[in-house]
Write a structure and sequence with these properties.
InterPro entries: Bardet-Biedl_syndrome_7_prot, BBS7_GAE_dom, BBS7_hairpin, BBS7_pf_dom, Beta-prop_BBS7, WD40_repeat_dom_sf. One of its GO terms (cellular component) is membrane. Pfam families: BBS7_GAE, BBS7_hp, BBS7_pf, Beta-prop_BBS7. This protein is of the alpha+beta class. The chain folds into five domains: 243 residues, YVTN repeat-like/Quinoprotein amine dehydrogenase (Methylamine Dehydrogenase, Chain H); 63 residues, no CATH class; 102 residues; 104 residues, 2-Layer Sandwich (TATA-Binding Protein); 114 residues, no CATH class. α6 crosses α8, α6 packs antiparallel against α9 and α9 packs across α10.
């Protein structure tokens, strides 16, 4: 185990001889680079550097046609180079004002590609060559192999679901991908036969292969995330099955390690997976522990390095004999046991020492520092937010507090015990207080919440790990007014749209900051240029929003009148705070209300039917016990009994779903008339009565008659 590690900070050095094992080099957030090999199952350190600023990336490089065994690390705004023996040969202080987030070293070893949040820089022999300012945060960078493509083609993976292909300091073209790309890798480790093939992984767990030609991109395959697994953090190509074709090794942020094989020429197939307990930051294939046996090496967030080997652990015994563990394995286990006992004794001694010293009046307890890796993202499938908290030591408990009404949803993978505290929402606007108590060795906790659009505020997580003295860290997450909207590449322009137009004396930066306040997934930096357009989709209903704005003017179009109403309220409130006079005009399309109701109604019917079925289950089960069999029941009731467990599971997973839909229809009703200047709140009870028993046409008729 090393310190906490960031994404892409562990690599295998090339083997020196033909059969020799490979050394592992890893950089951690204490700034230490550790290089070690494995001899007889024990880690033997080759070199270790002194601590410093945290290491954000580690890459290998070297001259063309020589082994790639020079080690390059990015730390702060500096790049350092080390030989495989640990001697430093390069210290290059870049002109970047913030720390490096992504780095790529080209095979030639002379080209260095660095990215901070929005800035890309290309250096050749440590001299600044090219510069590019991206429209959104850059998550990863790589360059197509020059020996195959004959020109330098950098590719940036950007948060706004786009790969940007550059030429020099200019944008060549953009490639739209299905989710925010978090990691890029050359296909097969070399870009494929053409050298133009790139594999990307997204933060919502999707995977794809794209060919990047000089003029356009050609998508080859795409794999969605049907299994609802975590986001992808690392990719490697390695022939672990020994069949002459390189497999794809994938590491995810929920600890899933996957191997995809290419059995036919088409899409890759998942052949093998293995669950680790924390997110996998780096993954590599190679020969480490024993020559002749390949393995997959993964480094996880808290700094554990884990190897999965192809070496058979059991020696085949005779017929019927129990499989015996090899001698090597047995001795390894006993040495681990000894080590554990030593550590336990040491911990006890230190604890006693601490207790004694804490009784003296001069001793002061220092607050232990621990790092938390968190991710708060909107899921497209069920319009809920996932909050993932990962701590370098075991979590004791997490307290979740919110000043806006939100629902906590069930997560299958979550083994923590949750308890709710009643809260008074009046004086200190508390709407949720829940405590998750974790089991002994939990280092990763996943929660799911669903917010209500139009209600905005802050969700806070108080994380307390199992360390002495007790310490707690608070993490805050903004729940935005239009929290269920997600950025998309394009929208359907044929839908009936409502328009909201703002005019006034405000700058481009000011209106951009208001849009950032209202909507998720908008880059915080003001975009370059005179004006900008963003498209969004509501993940719960499928309605859409187009926002275009520049200095002194903003135009927002949506087929959902409630979206426009929320924007109008929030934007005018924000402008009033800054004493800016806004001229607001709107154009309401009557057809849009009908259109939105048609989107909501099928969902409403489905949920009403589900609730009805769930209410019948107990009665039907009682009948079943009473009568002994259920042959006399109608087929529809029999099917309810057969699917009872699934129905209950689904109902439990989405509490308050029906109330949310009722709320949306009520808001739609109030907002429709609000824009006409009528207050219809007195008619809401009547609407709720109608909702309980009427079909789509009756509902539309009520909206029109009111």
């Amino acid at each position: 185990q090393v310190g906490v590690t960031a994404q892409k900070t562990m690599r295998l050095l090339p083997a020196s001889g033909r059969k020799a094992t490979q050394k592992v080099v890893v950089g951690d957030q204490d700034g230490v680079i550790t290089c070690f090999g494995i001899k007889k199952g024990e880690a033997v350190t080759v070199f270790k550097t002194l601590p410093g600023q945290k290491i954000t990336r580690l890459e290998l490089g070297g001259a063309l046609n020589t082994p790639q065994e020079k080690i390059f690390v990015a730390t702060g705004s500096e790049v350092r180079g080390f030989t495989k023996r640990g001697k430093q040969f390069l210290s290059f202080e870049t002109n970047l004002t913030e720390s490096i987030k992504a780095m790529y070293v080209h095979i030639s070893g002379a080209d260095l590609f660095l990215c901070a949040s929005y800035i890309y820089n290309h250096y050749c022999d440590c001299k600044d060559q090219h510069y590019y300012l991206s429209g959104d945060k850059i998550n990863d960078v790589l360059c197509l192999p020059v020996d195959k493509v004959n020109c330098i083609t950098p590719v940036l993976a950007c948060q706004d679901r786009v790969l940007r292909v550059l030429q020099g300091s200019d944008l060549l073209y953009e490639v739209e991908v299905p989710g925010p790309p978090t990691v890029l890798a050359l296909n097969n480790g070399n870009g494929g036969d053409s050298g133009e093939e790139i594999v990307y992984g997204t933060s919502d767990g999707q995977l794809g292969l794209i060919q990047i030609t000089g003029s356009k991109s050609i998508p080859k395959w795409e794999i969605g995330n049907e299994r609802k697994r975590g986001g992808i953090l690392c990719i490697d190509s390695f022939d672990i099955l020994g069949d002459g074709v390189k497999e794809l090794l994938i590491g995810r942020d929920d600890g899933m390690l996957e191997i995809y094989t290419f059995e036919s020429a088409d899409d890759p197939v998942l052949r093998y997976d293995h669950a680790l307990s924390e997110s996998i930051a780096s993954i590599q294939g190679g020969c480490v522990g024993k020559e002749g046996y390949d393995e997959i090496l993964a480094s996880t967030y808290s700094g554990w390095l884990t190897g999965l080997t192809t070496e058979p652990v059991h020696r085949e015994g005779g017929s019927g004999e129990e499989l015996k563990l090899s001698q090597e394995m047995q001795s390894k286990i006993s040495s681990l046991r000894n080590e554990l006992e030593h550590l336990q004794i040491k911990v006890l001694q230190e604890r006693e020492k601490y207790q004694q010293s804490s009784q003296s009046s001069t001793a002061v307890s220092s607050v232990p520092v621990f790092s938390v890796n968190d991710k708060f993202t909107l899921n497209k499938d069920d319009a809920s937010y996932s909050l993932i908290l990962e701590v370098q030591t075991a979590i004791d408990n997490v307290l979740v507090q919110s000043d806006v009404p939100i629902d906590l949803l069930d997560v299958d993978k979550n083994s923590a015990v949750v308890s709710f505290s009643s809260c008074d929402s009046e004086p200190n606007s508390n709407f949720l207080l829940a405590t998750y108590r974790c089991q002994a060795n939990t280092t990763r906790l996943e929660l799911k919440v669903r917010s209500i659009e139009g209600q905005y505020g802050t969700l806070q997580a108080y994380v307390t790990p199992r360390i002495q003295p007790k310490t707690c860290q608070v993490h805050q997450y903004q729940i935005k007014p239009l929290s269920l909207h997600q950025r998309t590449h394009s929208i359907d322009h044929d839908r009936p749209m409502n328009t909201l137009t703002l005019k006034g004396h405000f700058s481009f930066a000011e209106i951009h900051s208001w849009v950032v306040f209202c909507l998720p997934e908008v880059p915080e930096k003001t975009p370059a240029g005179e004006s900008v357009t963003f498209y969004f989709q509501n993940t719960f209903l499928g309605t859409q929003l187009e926002s275009t704005y520049r200095k002194g003017e903003g135009c927002f179009k949506s087929d959902n009148i409630s979206t426009i109403s929320i924007l109008k309220d929030v934007l005018s409130k924000e402008a009033t705070k800054r004493k800016i006079n806004l001229n607001i005009s709107y154009d309401v399309n009557e057809e849009s209300v009908k259109h939105t109701l048609k989107l909501i109604h099928p969902k409403l019917e489905y949920q009403k039917l589900l609730a009805k079925k769930v209410h019948l289950i107990d009665a039907l089960r009682e009948l079943q016990v009473h009568e002994g069999n259920v042959d006399f029941l109608l087929p529809k009731y029999r099917s309810i009994l057969e699917e009872a467990d699934q129905l209950l599971e689904e109902y439990k997973r989405q509490p308050a779903h029906l109330e949310r839909l009722y709320g949306m229809i009520t808001d739609l009703f109030i907002d429709k008339f609000k824009f006409k200047g009528t207050n219809v709140k007195t008619k809401v009870p009547l609407l709720l009565e109608i909702l309980d028993g009427c079909d789509q046409d009756g509902l539309i008729a009520f909206f029109e008659a009111a």
